[in-house]
Amino acid sequence: MQRKGTRIAAVMADVRSKIAARAYLPGTRLPSVRAQARAMRLSVSTVVEAYERLAAEGAVASRPGSGFYVAGPAAPLALTDIGPRLDRAIDPLWVSRQALETGAGSLKPGCGWLPASWMYEAGMRRALRALARADTLELTDYATPLGHPALRRFLCRRLAATGVEAAPEQLLLTESGTQAIDLICRYLLEPGDTVLVDDPCYFNFHALLKAHRAHVVGVPYTANGPDLERFETALREHAPRLYITNSGIHNPTGATLSPVVAHRVLKLADAAGLAIVEDDIFADFELAPAPRLAAFDGLARVAHIGSFSKTISASLRCGYIAAPAGWIEGLTDLKIATSFGGGRLAADAVLTALTDAGYRRHMEAVRLRLAEAMDKTLSRLQALGIEPWLRPQAGMFAWCRLPDGSDAAAIARTCLKDGVVLAPGNAFSQSQSAGDFLRFNVAQSADSRVFEVLARAIAAPP
Amino acid sequence: MQRKGTRIAAVMADVRSKIAARAYLPGTRLPSVRAQARAMRLSVSTVVEAYERLAAEGAVASRPGSGFYVAGPAAPLALTDIGPRLDRAIDPLWVSRQALETGAGSLKPGCGWLPASWMYEAGMRRALRALARADTLELTDYATPLGHPALRRFLCRRLAATGVEAAPEQLLLTESGTQAIDLICRYLLEPGDTVLVDDPCYFNFHALLKAHRAHVVGVPYTANGPDLERFETALREHAPRLYITNSGIHNPTGATLSPVVAHRVLKLADAAGLAIVEDDIFADFELAPAPRLAAFDGLARVAHIGSFSKTISASLRCGYIAAPAGWIEGLTDLKIATSFGGGRLAADAVLTALTDAGYRRHMEAVRLRLAEAMDKTLSRLQALGIEPWLRPQAGMFAWCRLPDGSDAAAIARTCLKDGVVLAPGNAFSQSQSAGDFLRFNVAQSADSRVFEVLARAIAAPP
């Protein structure tokens, strides 16, 4: 028989290791003294003593009459407390927060959307004037559970043009593309489920999946889509429930899925019972449409996401899900439970803007302007020794490698002091293997000060 | 030693009971064969055989190379599959779905909002015309992480008038009041945490908390607030993390919290380390302000929620959280992760409408009209033998008991066939003890057909 001191230490070590492994999250009640004693075949008094000592050192807190709780931040789900603690400069939320928060004086080559002056402002003004004359229901009432019927019908016709065949009953409007993905995660995932993402991928997928307590596995992304061998291995080793990706213009790489990779991904997904979310919010920036997983798959296991925040306006929130028919009822219940349906107004404004003759011309001009900005930005970056990983066919993003030995996170911190918001590579990388990459938004890189500040930061000693 | 057949049956019974108890939810991977064999001290071959038999009967599914999974609906989180399976007529989502879905020909005395013609339509039209002339950023860009600064400052001044002292940095804008509560649940709750609700309470709290996999405990609600003795017992027995309630005008009862109960609830919450969400979306309907938990507590452990969907417009989505200062950073991260911030447009329209001189006059007229509708509706209900539980001081809701022996769910189903949407009591009740209650919205009960259809349904044999 061990000494009592040793036995107490064993209980303390057991609890501490479970806290460290996040098997016991902050706020969790410890097993009752009695249950713990039974489980470890120790006396109740030993466990009481161990718990008291853990309380004294602050690892747990006692609530009189109710037991012992794991101490920690007030918020068990503070995102920064989940998973390995990264430098805040490469935290998945760092780029979003900086890009959303910084004022008009800042330059934002790291941000994920177009400058306000590139958006469909004229169409928005027309849509708002039309709304001011809309009927009472449109102005004041809730939308139906699936959302604005005329917009859903219009979106179905629009999707059909890219080969995605969805009935209006398979289309659910949401407040944003992000909310759309969030609803699907709520619908499909249990805490602890594994989700595949591209490495690199849009950083907010990491933040969102943390909020769902998912186990995230990265698959290296190539110029044509995910690395198929690694994808297959990940399916075999991790039995993921879901894969989240972009097909058209991949964020952050600007790569485009090839038909052969699309087909192979779907075949593997079929065999493994894997669901897929295809986030397609950059579709309208494409010059020629890339293959869509949702088109090949016929919305059997792929949900297709879109929004209008990158083209018409981010100030009015509207996104959508085209999903397998069997998912819609559950997704709608979850939408009502967590956001009580939607409004009519944003959907109405989007429909007016999309069907306005000016929208097509506006987007043609934006695509041309982006192509010019891409050329110009890549030359200016190459002059600083910053090389694109590939030359994107379209879109606003260029995924670029810094000169040898440069630390993107350190450079981002330095540039932020000079009012330039960058997007350091490891914010996008599950494996943290993109420490020498930056994602540039070519539409936000017109000002030569971006390159001056960047040149100084690269030249400075670390 | 047991016979092998008995041992196999034991494994099958163990798995089945865990599925029934929802310890294993649909989609969950079963423990590996090896782990299960170790845990039950049985041979691997016994467990393999048991799992295969469970697969043959469809309780679990085998995924080659990855193990066995609990079968079930494609969606582990289909809300109707969580908890006891209720009659769809008293499912927490039934009332919302019916009220949102049914067309213009239907009457909706069960719905939770005003008729479109009672809303602030004139103010909305003015706000939209003003927006059509707003500057580019307002029309096209994302909001800052906390949301529209001028609206937040205005709301702080408005809250101060009811005694809730919040700095603008403690105020976070959301897409809706429901999203506000959802964010707080995401911030505070782990799956399995206990949450207290009033019994009866707003039915969507049940739907929302199911989506969070919370363990919900109901506390009977009295004319002055929660039953304090039962509240104290619930704290002692269940160590809840959160209590969700309305202070001003309680949904569905129309009751008002008294100062003495408010004070006592906060004292108990302090002692138990309980967080509170005070959903105050009906504040503008009050004639005289009731005590607010957030005012008494000084936003130490109470978060205060508001929205504009019940007064200005439900077509434009905008809500807010006034929260303890320490929660804001985490709530903001979660908001960005799950809905990528918000838009500027809805907040701008709300600010324009609220600061318009017409809003105060509009709400005065609405309150007067509601008081008249309350009198008239209660008399018409009393003529049918339907008695109010109490006479509300203000608001749109009357919580009423049907004549002896009536089944509110059956009556709601009957009336729905005649185009009248009712809100049956058990949709609001955790204990399912309100089977003879209906919630009436007096603003939606002007048409005499409501009472004709109701009279027929009550008179009909069940």
Automatic annotation (TrEMBL), chains A, B:
Keywords, alphabetical: Aminotransferase, DNA-binding, Pyridoxal phosphate, Transcription, Transcription regulation, Transferase
Origin species: Lysobacter firmicutimachus
Key word Signal present: no
Annotated Pfam families: Aminotran_1_2 (PF00155), GntR (PF00392)
Domain HTH gntR-type: 5-73
Keyword Cell division: no
InterPro entries to which the protein is assigned, alphabetical: Aminotransferase_I/II_large, HTH_trans_reg/aminotransferase, PyrdxlP-dep_Trfase, PyrdxlP-dep_Trfase_major, PyrdxlP-dep_Trfase_small, Tscrpt_reg_HTH_GntR, WH-like_DNA-bd_sf, WH_DNA-bd_sf
Record-given protein name: PLP-dependent aminotransferase family protein
SUPFAM superfamilies (alphabetical): PLP-dependent transferases, Winged helix' DNA-binding domain
Domain of life: Bacteria
SMART domains from the UniProt entry: HTH_GNTR
Similarity-based family: In the C-terminal section; belongs to the class-I pyridoxal-phosphate-dependent aminotransferase family.
CDD domains on file: AAT_like (cd00609), WHTH_GntR (cd07377)
GO molecular function, one term: transaminase activity
